[in-house]
Amino acid sequence: MRRLHIATIFLSTVLLGSGCKKFLDVNQDPNNPMQVSEKLVLPPVEVTMSTQVVGGFNGVNGAYWMQQLSQNQPSPGQETYRIFPVDVDNTWTFYIYPNILNNLRLMMDQARAAGHNEYMAIGKTLFAFNLAIATDVWGNVPYTDAMKLPAISRPKYDSQESIYQVLQSTLDSAIYFASQPKSAVAPGSDDYIYQGNMAKWKKLAYMLKARFYLRLTKAPGHTAAAQADLALAALANAFADNSDNAMVTYTGAAQAESPWFKNTEPGAGGVVMNKTFVDFLKSNNDPRLPIIATTDADGGYTGRTPGATTVPDPTVLSQVNSFYASADAPLYLATYTEAMFIKAEATFLKSGATAATPVYQAAIKAHMDMLKVGAADAQAYINSRPALTDANALQQIIYEKYVAGFLSIETYNDWRRTGYPQLSLPENPFVNYIPRRWPYPSNEILANPQPDQKVTTADRVWWDAK
């Protein structure tokens, strides 16, 4: 896995993100087109996605709301559900739309014209990945009219239902291009995720198809059984083991640290482990706890009660351990473990708890292997878990997926879709509910007023049906 240097790449991101929007979209002379090679566009896109989106506000917010992490600060704050339109400006206005989606569009336009199939495959996979992030937190978002300056300065919003159709067709197209003969110009070291390995990119595309199919188990007009069938069919071509994990790694040098190292360092606002998450692992004698969390001053494991009074001495609380938060820790985008939990849930929905049991156990084992838990300890833990029944299977599967998805933005999506994990409100909540979505960004509300923006954080997105 190629390691990257953030300082150089982030500079490229600025040039290719805000710069592309200004120069390539608006002021481009059609007789003298300005072009940047795909090899220069792809790296900053992958870094922005990893560092500023998955490992940025989106990931941090999900970890607080799902009570995996806590802010050792006075309330109100993120963990007590204080979120305003200005808080999400950067994710939309600087990262997802200009620096990622628009640059991917530009990259794919060039790749299509030049016949560079590999860049088309990667571009479409990453486009679907990031468009899904946008629609999952905001619901209806611009797509059809988006990124068409100066012709369209106020793009209308597409429905989330139509966006989910786009996600699947885009991934189908990615799979098609990944299956084509090798191009004269193909990615290699400029691809920080798979170094241009098209077999692995195809597996990721299929894995994302399964993720998005299962997201719609309760969506209007869809049935859990049908979505399970679709997910299982996609998984047949997806990840085979942990070597297929999609991740970005970091050197750990100055300006090249893992985002979770930066998110949890002392200057980041007192980020510690949450009592809800730590107590769940402790109650199960989970052997992953020492790998996920550090010990407290007394040698035990203590999480902070969310929303409680600030603890003067943070050493009495556990923090995120090095596997996820060292300076050179990888940032996971999608894992074999997640694929196996999707398979376990889909198998349960189609064939019942007995059929799902070996898949569920294999999913737990996959995460144990990823964390390098000893085989005996891993098996003892698996043996200790309650037997799956039709009454408890969904809860057990999602709770284990919640642990295995530590710091993953998917835990928030699973909670909205299934109701698991069952969470209580923090102390001193800013609102008396766990938000079902993000507010629209203040910059977008000002520049592109749309009726969709009238929703509140209590309103559900389309697929989050009761």
Reported for the largest beta sheet, the result is: 3 strands, mixed
Rg measurement, Å:
22 Å
Structural class of the helices, strands and pairings?
Answer: mainly alpha
Strand content: under 5%
Task: Report the top-level CATH class of one domain.
Answer: Mainly Alpha
> What is the arithmetic mean of pLDDT?
93
Q: Which fold name is given in CATH as the topology of one domain? A: Serine Threonine Protein Phosphatase 5, Tetratricopeptide repeat
Extract low-pLDDT stretches. 5-27, 29-33
**How is the quaternary structure best described?**
single chain
Number of extended strands: 5
Keywords: Lipoprotein
InterPro entries: SusD-like_2, TPR-like_helical_dom_sf
Protein name: SusD/RagB family nutrient-binding outer membrane lipoprotein
Organism: Chitinophaga varians
Folded structure, characterized:
This protein is mainly alpha-helical and 466 residues long. Among the domains are: 1-196 and 434-457, Alpha Horseshoe (Serine Threonine Protein Phosphatase 5, Tetratricopeptide repeat); 259-325, no CATH class. The protein contains 18 helices and 5 strands. The strands form 2 sheets. Strands 1-3-5 form a 3-stranded mixed sheet, with helices on both faces. Strands 2-4 form a two-stranded antiparallel sheet. α8 crosses α13 (336-351), α14 packs parallel to α16 (393-404) and α16 runs antiparallel to α17 (410-418). The longest helix has 26 residues, at 89-114. 50% of the residues are buried. The model is unreliable at 5-27 and 29-33 (pLDDT under 50).
